[in-house]
Amino acid sequence: MSLPAKSRHGRPAGRLSASRWVLIGLALALVVTVGVYTYNSSEQQGPSAQAPVVPGGKAPDKSCTPTAQLVPPCGAWWGMHVPPGDNPNMRPSLTAMEQKLGRKLDITISYHDMSDSDSGRFFRNDESQVVNDHILLLAWESSIWQDNLDIAWRDIAAGHYDQAITDQAARVKKYGKPILVGFDGEKDRDESGQTPAEYVAAYKRIVDGFRKAGATNALWVWGVTGYYPFRDRWKAYYPGHSYVDWISYDPYNFATCRGATWQDFKQTVQPTYNWFQQNGFANKPLMLAEYGTESHKSDASARADWYLDIPEAMKTMPNLKAIIQWNNVDADRCDFSLTGPGVVQAFAEAGKDPYFRQPMVRQPTG
């Protein structure tokens, strides 16, 4: 696996400039996954007013109903980050992609900073639309974009941002349905001089703030790069089992972009998966908050084959419960978009596997 680059991913369109915006980790930041929807992850376009049904018209097996932690017992959620382009409303680009794929995505991503502005506050109008029929990952980053300000973990831990935490917690509590929240993923690669202990203290301050405010519908996600040579760093950043409901990591097959050795999906994903299973984290569901592949230098069909291999590979990693393809070009011009011969078709075919057709049902309110 090639070393992940600093500032790897580009900013979504419409965002004010920031000195360091990296679209990584739990979508790089404080990630909120909203899970409250009533639809079956199939070809239908638009929310259903009825209980979900599986293809063939049968009611879903109750044993496959997602848990209170939004974990699908019988498979995994199928998702994608779809760049909105110049339109700050994410719905049009998301709908257009779903039409290409012939199915609705289960999960998608949006982004927020820690300001008390539209950039920071949950939930924007377009998010309110998307959340009706998707799991929405809201990435809350420890920065203020307009001021090009990166917020120090020690300042969060010291209580300087308690009001921002309390305000967001109130919005989440008002929303009332299960939400996955994570803080600054992929910080195992942080080069700012901050320490793992400062990260853990900031993370706990946020979780405790939400709990104190009564936002008990928040479920907590913790994420790392997944870059295997960093594995000795991961436990130092871990805030403890009582503060974590999901674990995420972000594997990429960089290939031609970094002169790396080509790896198929399983080779890209499984080493870190195995590490978590073998090092005291097997009781936590895993997600790929981002993943993707570059093109192959000499095999034009390799990228399509990479995606076609996903369903069978996923069935060998049963604790991996959500995967979100990052359909974009990063800051280093590494291209993880679904481009090339047959790639969109291959991704669409993989997403139609029954393993990724889990019933999305309404969750109980907190």
TrEMBL record:
GO terms for molecular function: mannan endo-1,4-beta-mannosidase activity. It holds the Pfam family Glyco_hydro_26. Residues 59-364 form the GH26 domain. One of its GO terms (biological process) is substituted mannan metabolic process. The chain crosses the membrane at residues 21-39. Residues 42-64 are annotated as: Disordered. This is GH26 domain-containing protein. It comes from Streptosporangium album.
